[in-house]
Amino acid sequence: MYNQHEYFMRRCLDLAALGIGSVSPNPMVGCVIVNGDKIIGEGYHSVNGGDHAEVVAINSIGINKINKDTTLYVSLEPCAHFGKTPPCSEKIIASGIKNVIIGCKDINPVVSGKGIEALKKKNINVTCGVLEKESIDLNKRFFTYYKKRRPYVVLKWAQTKDGFLDRTRSSKKDIGINWISAPETKSLVHKWRSEEQAILVGRNTVLYDNPSLTVREWEGDNPIRIIIDSQLQTNIKGNTFSDGSKTFILNRIKSEVVKNIEYIKIPETSTKYILEELHKRGIQSVLIEGGSRTLQYFIIDRAWDEARVIVGNQYFDDGVKAPVISKIPNDSIDFGEDKIYFYYRK
Q1: Is 196 helix (H, G, I), strand (E, B) or coil?
Q2: DSSP string covering 258-300, please?
Q3: Which residue among 6, 42, 54, 268 is the active-site one?
Q4: Residue 338 near residue 312, CB atoms below 8 Å
Q5: What pLDDT does residue 243 have?
Q6: Does 225 score more than 90 pLDDT?
Q7: CB-based contacts of 2, cutoff 8 Å, min separation 6
Q8: For residue 226, what are the β-bridge partners?
Q9: Which end of the chain is more exposed for a tag (fewer CB within 10 A), N or C?
């Protein structure tokens, strides 16, 4: 059965999703303005520091198109404070719109409930909770950051059909990536990287794979690079440090900033202290790419939210065993020659 509120809220969510990877640490938000059963304006938050979805949508129409029956739909509660932009609630009030439908309440204490209260004080009809679950899930990184006080954690690795993550390395001659997945899957992985604020690997991954950890095969911003190196044994002259991108090295020796590299001393290189440090620095999501031991630590500590496991079309017969998640995958897809399995911890 047709539900008008849900129909227009789904459009808000589709618009909001266009901002993934570009609006962090702000949430993704979409907005549509409706007269009767027709959309007359729409917008989404497209870049951090730019106009919010409600402002874009209102600016896309003329004030003379707004009447007593005009309804604004927005996937997240409008803000009521001055940040990089003025409050969206004030823009809505000034527009003359008298009906507002909201997907979910904002969890950020600076906003939470205040935007709804500001609208109601001006006698605007407010309905909150339309497609609430979907609205929260869209911004799972944002909600996890504020609710659990840690980043949203995505595990990712590629393994062979016989369950190996890598070949056995015995010397510096073995440096370089032993590719498991098909070339086209690399572009997908770079897309995944563009959607997260940070990417994390252990020291051995830097030593043996010499990875760039960039989004070079996808359009978007490179994530902040995070290296776990307890005793500072990493050579900082490889690909991982080559382009001047912001890089954190979490260690137990020192805190120091050298150009684009920040050494961050933590009591121990455990998942608890790693995630606490990232939270302090406003990082809402992190992609954990390896190696096997680093990934397994996050699995054992239940310090993850989702995992993406790429199974390539080849065998190693021997080598470094891939991590193990003791649950059935929630979903899977065929991607070229590869198979990708998706796990969600809850």
Answers
A1: coil
A2: ETTEEEEE-SS-SHHHHHHHHHHTT--EEEEEE-HHHHHHHHH
A3: 54
A4: yes
A5: 79
A6: yes
A7: none
A8: 200, 248
A9: N
Task: Please give the backbone phi and psi of residue 137, each rounded to the nearest 5 degrees, phi first.
Answer: -60, -35
Question: To which H or E segment does residue 188 belong?
Answer: helix 183-194
Name the amino acid, one letter, at 136. I
Q: Give per-residue pLDDT as tens, 94-138.
A: 999 999 999 999 999 888 889 999 999 999 999 999 999 999 999
Place of tokens 């990875």: 211
Output the six-digit token pair for 224: 């902040």
CA separation for the pair 284, 48 (Å, rounded): 14
Compute CA distances 42 → 38, 48, 79, 124, 334, whole Å. 11, 18, 17, 19, 35
Residue 54 is a catalytic residue: yes
Q: What are phi and psi of 310, to 5 degrees?
A: -95, 125
pLDDT attached to residue 142 = 95
Question: How many Cβ atoms are within 10 Å of 172's Cβ, its own excluded?
Answer: 8
Terminal-to-terminal C-alpha distance of the chain: 30
Residue bearing tokens 């080598």? 319
Would you state the structure tokens that stand for residue 53, as one six-digit string?
């979805």
